[in-house]
Amino acid sequence: MLESLLLQRSSSVLDKWFDAVLGTYPPDTKRFLKKQKDRFANPVGTTLFKEMESLYQELLRGEDRKNSFAILDRIIRIRAVQDFSPSEAVGFLFSLKAIIRSELESEIRENDLNEELSRLEDRVDDLILLAFDIYMKCREKVFEIRVSEAKNHVSRLLRKAELICEIPEEGADRNHEDGNPIHKP
């Protein structure tokens, strides 16, 4: 019964949830993400809303963790490259629990839906843990890229300053001091 109520009110829940996510951005960014509806001018806002909607539907079905992972991955990848702490990047899932409770408060009480709500919140908790794992893998990748770029930059600077030179690969022919090649058997 809870899932059917949440499906009926999905538009309201999603709008409030999207507003909560937008609340994590600076005011100017929030206004832009909310008002700009063109998916080419606002790919972040469009993607976030579309994927949050898909995640919400998947959460209510509660069937396919693999599909939830894929949807969540697309959301977290966006937030992992932005200036969010881990808790801020995945915290939008916590807000969904509060929004659902607020939206259906009277129905939950009147129809004694606490057990169903508890199961749904357990699924949200599973998504939170999954989101944190995804976030950490994304951040590891970002740091690996940064380290690689820094190494390449330093290497280029050292070569340009002629402080290092290329070392021939192992097994390549080398020259004696007299200029004659050394061949390995």
Structural class: mainly alpha
Unreliable parts: none
Oligomer: single chain
SS strand fraction: under 5%
Q: Tally the structural domains.
A: 1
Main β sheet profile: 2 strands, antiparallel
Radius of gyration of CA atoms, rounded to a whole number: 26 Å
Broad shape? elongated
**Physical arrangement of strands within the biggest beta sheet:** 1-2
One letter per element, helices H and strands E, the order comes to HHHHHHHHHEE
Percent helix among the residues?
A: over 70%
Count, helices: 9
Protein described:
There is one protein chain. The protein has 185 residues and is mainly α. The protein has one domain. It is built from nine helices and two strands. The chain has helices at residues 2-8, 10-22, 27-35, 43-61, 65-80, 86-90, 92-103, 105-110, 114-160; strands at 174-175, 181-182. The protein has a two-stranded antiparallel sheet with strand order 1-2. A hairpin with a 5-residue loop joins strand 1 (174-175) and strand 2. The longest helix is centred in the C-terminal third of the chain and has 47 residues, at 114-160. The relative contact order is 0.11. The model has no long low-confidence stretch (mean pLDDT 85).
